[in-house]
Amino acid sequence: MTVEVVLGEVTCPSGQLVVMDGGYLELWSGDQAPDNEERPATDFAIVGPDAEAAAESFDRQTGTRLYDIPAHAVAEFTATFDKHCREQEHDARLREFEQQVPHRERVRHAVAAREPGFIVMGVPVLPIEVPADRALRVTAVPGAYGSQSMRIEFSDAAVADSWVFGELGVDHARFVFADADALSSWEHFRPLDGLADLVLWGRDQEQVADEFGAPRLGDSVGVEYGWVDLPVEEAYQRGLAIETRRNKPGGPKFAFDFRPHSHYWQVMRLVRASDQEAGVIQVAGADILMAMTSVGDGFFPVHLDVDVDGLPIALRIDIARED
């Protein structure tokens, strides 16, 4: 018999849910156009009578929009697309957006067009329409070497079939389940109270703590040494000094983390303290859940469980299969 563990509940007042690598929420632009001076990019729509056929055969991204094409590669990318259309005899072309499409708008478009996802600077994002009037339970099925799967439920109907929905690529070993509107208020780095923690750990942690006068911390922080509730600028400057010490040739071996009191810090504090490695916080009136994959980074297939009428009843992430 399959045993499920409840990780928490998500609320989605907008009716549009986002699932992605939670560590990459620093990239999320919300209702604003993405603005990355270090990595300028352009978005395109594929238009013309054969737009859908051209998008499918070109097979670069999902659907008829192509996001985050690096500015330095636009000319070559456009030429490649035009050549492809000539070879395939598709009547289609690329139309450049005047500015990059805000990530919130990408969610709206994907849901309306029934596209299973899009990318944010190469990071897969899976949006889906969900009930807005109830809490959505998130569960995991434990296995011998981590979770076998995670599942967010939209209905208690019986599963009649499962369809392939997409794939999540994860580099930070964590998933986030979040309301699309609420993410426009997400603060990944900016401290909400002007404070930050600076913690350190590793082989030579005691030596470094002694050198910098770092106090021993309680178990609730998850590490032994560091400072909590410092003014953010003070914590940042101490972090720079500690980083300089770590980078000296032949220096002590240790790791450290600068943790401003942002939404990300709030939820990760709960995750670190949880036996299930999951936590829920409220942002802009919505409950957002962050959960560790339990197996590190990787690519994870995502399936849509449906009822006898083909209506979605759950989204399921396959994590680790037991032999």
UniProtKB/TrEMBL annotation:
Stated name of the protein = Uncharacterized protein
